[in-house]
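R.M. (postdoc): so does anyone remember the format we settled on? I'll just put the structure tokens first.
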């Protein structure tokens, strides 16, 4: 194995957990998240000679992942692959699993561009400017997508009144 391949393998091993979590938040399906990560690290390998010299490799790869996700949204990936609602994960003590599932389901219902914006801003903790750079849009667009995405999450997560006027969760 060449030195470049060894560097690539070591960096990908280090990046994988974050990439998987980010991919899952973008698409709400572990299997599809695996596919997104695989496509991203494959593209990274092809571009490794140039990518290994960038200052912030994590940001570079995260940008590749988000663009891969958004590209699949435009090409009809969802029409070719069946996505299920089940979430295969183990519960951790002390974490409100139901709330986490509710938020992930709500996030999955938000339009893809808004979802990508919310994941980058609040999960990856990026600034408006960094998010705009990754998405290839203006900072104003990031702000409006963030606002619309948060409004959509509030609507989805807000209790809906039942027949007798009592609030119930959707």
């Amino acid at each position: 194995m060449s030195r470049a391949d060894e560097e690539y393998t070591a960096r990908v091993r280090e990046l994988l957990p974050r990439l998987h979590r980010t991919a899952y938040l973008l698409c709400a399906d572990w299997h599809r998240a695996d596919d997104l990560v695989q496509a991203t690290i494959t593209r990274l390998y092809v571009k490794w000679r140039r990518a290994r010299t960038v200052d912030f490799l994590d940001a570079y790869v995260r940008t590749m992942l988000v663009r891969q996700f958004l590209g699949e949204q435009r090409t009809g990936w969802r029409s070719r692959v069946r996505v299920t609602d089940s979430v295969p994960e183990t519960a951790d003590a002390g974490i409100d699993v139901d709330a986490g599932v509710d938020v992930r389901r709500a996030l999955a219902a938000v339009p893809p561009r808004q979802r990508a914006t919310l994941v980058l801003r609040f999960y990856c903790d990026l600034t408006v400017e960094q998010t705009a750079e990754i998405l290839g849009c203006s900072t104003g667009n990031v702000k409006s997508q963030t606002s619309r995405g948060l409004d959509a999450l509030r609507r989805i997560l807000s209790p809906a009144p039942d027949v007798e006027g009592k609030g119930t969760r959707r």
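R.M.: ...and that's the designed sequence above, right after the tokens. Also worth knowing: Residues 96-159 form a domain with the Arc Repressor Mutant, subunit A fold (CATH 1.10.10.10). The first strand starts at residue 160 and ends at 161.
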